[in-house]
Amino acid sequence: MARKRSRYDYDDEPAADEAPKPVVHCWLCGRPTGSTIIWHHPIPKSRGGRDVVPMHGICQQTLTVNFTNSELQRAGMDVQQLLDNPAVKKFVDWVANKDPDFTATIAKKQR
Fold this sequence. Notes:
mainly alpha
C-alpha cells in the first residue's frame, strides 16, 4: 500500500481529516493566544481558587507584578476590576497590537 504522504513531506498544511485548532483568547487582553497558553488562577490557589483562565505569559506576569494575592482574591473573576488599574490599563493598551507570541521582561514588584 502506498502512503498518502511521504515521510519526507514537511508541508505545514493540515491533513484533510484534521480540524483546525480553535482560537483561544487571553482573559486579560483579549488577544488570541499563541503557541504557549498559560492557565492562570484568577483567584490564587492559596486563597481557594479552582477556576483557570487562558492567558499569555506576559499578561500573567503583569498581574503578578501589580497585585497581591489578597487583591486578586477580592477581584475574583471580574476582569474589568483588574483593567481599571492604571498600570494594567496602560499595559493592555501597549500590548494590543503585538504578536500573540510576543514576550518581554516585566518589571519586578516594588516592595
